[in-house]
Design goal:
- Among the domains are: 37 residues, no CATH class; 180 residues, Ribonuclease Inhibitor (Leucine-rich repeat, LRR (right-handed beta-alpha superhelix)).
- It is 27% helix and 23% strand.
- Strand 14, helix 12 and strand 15 form a beta-alpha-beta unit.
- The longest helix has 13 residues.
- It starts with 5 loop residues before the first helix and ends with a strand.
């Protein structure tokens, strides 16, 4: 088939939009005429060789070259995985059949009203799908289940701001065995949502990742919560990732579930809410012995809740949390880490006050949106810290430690969009004998002398990235910076290899 202004269309074809194809379709012609590739010039290679070659190419363009290449793409799962079909503002009803249905592995339905799916084309299209997402769509449960029935190879299913219309929830008689990841965001339902959960539990019996965020309060009642926990218990032998908001009912019921094999959890909590119960939170933390990675989000997350978390999970390695407080925040939990090595904390532009030394096990720390009055002193007192990232932090009033100190183990330093006094910056860049990598992003106070000082005092430094740092007049490349360094240092050009990235 041929499209109007085909070559221009191909160049901008990031995804396959069904309504765009329908509007540009004209009479079919030879495929090879589109890109002017004569069929007789094609090397006589078997399809298996072409598949390997095509994995390094833009598959959406290859399909338009000739019929044989289109068939090769259609017959190779790895190549189909590169194709995404988008249905935008389409009304799925009786008789709706898209004029072109590429053999894509991914499909997105945006702003669609889905009254039914045609059994004539959807099963053929659905059997190739491994990822399906519905965003801001309206669909009745029976239609949703019919759609899923036609996608036996689905591995990931997402519902974002989807409105489930009224419709009888029928008994399901099929499963999608390979489904691994199911997520919902802002799900709403015209009727009882618990029956829908029961059906989905039967369809997806072996989920590895389950996320349910910000569902409509009208369906999130005690019955719905109970069915949700039953589903989690049913899949606890395979479930590795869980993301939910913990209201009182869910916190209480989930704390009773034993032998969860979770590796990663994202919990929404509100420590100032009337429902918050630190004892239930402690029980929940103790009942998850295999967790490696936890992200806490929500409102009013305090130091006590995090301290309970890190002292009751002996396997936890990675922690991300956004703290909140009426005044300054004191992250004392950093001195109580048992196994956590990587910590990311945000404080919404509040003051972050360190009152105790860090746990010696902490090796990586990221702080964002914090006002640091005494941060440098305490950061430098962590002898095992290897990676430090400060993002959108204010260090303008941060004092310089009176004694000479160094980040003895620090290998990676990132400063991104931070406010910092020149004397503090000069001191900071002079304390890294083991530093190997530096990232400066949006740092207006970083100048060429800052980088030269880093190079002089950090003999192991071999990678520097400067993004949005505009105080480098006359220096447009890493080679020019290194030549300047060698002149200042009095060393021979080429005697030291440092990789620069200037953006």
């Amino acid at each position: 088939m041929q499209f109007e202004e085909t070559e221009k269309f191909i160049g901008t074809w990031g995804n396959i939009d069904i309504e765009k194809i329908d509007s540009q379709r004209v009479e079919p012609v030879r495929y090879n005429s589109i890109l002017h590739v004569p069929t007789q010039l094609e090397p006589p290679l078997p399809p298996e060789v072409w598949e390997r070659i095509f994995r390094f190419c833009a598959v959406r363009e290859l399909r338009l070259v000739c019929r044989r290449w289109n068939d090769i793409v259609a017959g190779c799962p790895a190549l189909r995985q590169k194709l995404t079909v988008r249905f935008r503002s389409v009304k799925f009803g009786a008789g709706y059949v898209p004029s072109v249905v590429p053999p894509a592995a991914n499909a997105q339905l945006n702003h669609c009203l889905i009254r039914t799916v045609d059994d004539g084309w959807w099963p053929d299209f659905g059997r190739n799908l491994t990822q399906l997402s519905l965003e801001e769509c309206r669909i009745a449960p029976p239609v949703l289940f019919r759609m899923l029935r036609g996608c036996p190879n689905l591995r990931e299913f997402k519902l974002v701001e989807v409105k489930l219309l009224a419709g009888e929830v029928e008994a399901v008689d099929f499963v999608v065995d390979g489904m691994e990841k199911f997520s919902t965001v802002d799900l709403s339902c015209s009727e009882d949502g618990s029956e829908i959960l029961d059906s989905l539990k039967l369809i997806f019996p072996r989920l590895k990742s389950f996320s349910m965020q910000d569902s409509d309060d009208d369906i999130w009642d005690a019955l719905f919560t109970g069915r949700l926990v039953q589903w989690i218990e049913t899949i606890k032998e395979t479930l590795q990732v869980l993301e939910v908001y913990l209201d009182h009912d869910l916190l209480e019921r989930l704390s009773e579930v034993e032998l969860l094999q979770l590796k990663q959890a994202e919990y929404g909590i509100d420590c100032s809410s009337s429902y918050w119960d630190i004892n239930l939170w402690t029980k929940l933390c103790r009942n998850q012995p295999s967790l490696l990675d936890v992200n806490l989000w929500g409102s009013n997350i305090d130091d006590e809740a995090i301290k309970v978390l890190v002292t009751n999970m002996s396997t936890l390695r990675i922690l991300e949390a956004e703290l909140d407080s009426p005044s300054q925040i004191v992250p004392s939990f950093l001195g109580h880490l048992i196994a956590v090595q990587n910590v990311t904390i945000g404080v919404n532009s509040l003051a972050l006050a360190f009152t105790a030394s860090f746990s010696p096990i902490l090796t990586s720390l990221t702080i964002y949106e914090a006002y640091l009055e005494d941060g440098i002193t305490f950061l430098m007192n962590s002898p095992h810290l290897q990676e430090l990232s400060l993002v959108q932090c204010d260090l303008t009033k941060c004092p310089i430690p009176p004694a000479v100190q160094t980040f003895s183990a620090l290998k990676l330093l990132e400063l991104s969009e931070c406010k910092i006094a020149k004397k503090v910056l000069d001191f900071t860049v002079s304390c890294h004998p083991a530093l190997e990598t530096v990232w400066f992003s949006g740092m207006k106070s970083v100048r060429i002398d800052t980088v030269v000082t880093l190079l002089l005092l950090s003999p192991k430094l071999h990678q520097v990235e400067l993004m949005g740092c505009d105080r480098f007049a006359g220096f447009t490349s890493g080679a020019e910076i290194m030549r300047h360094y060698h002149r200042v240092h009095g060393s021979a050009e080429g005697s030291r290899g440092v990789s620069f990235a200037l953006v």
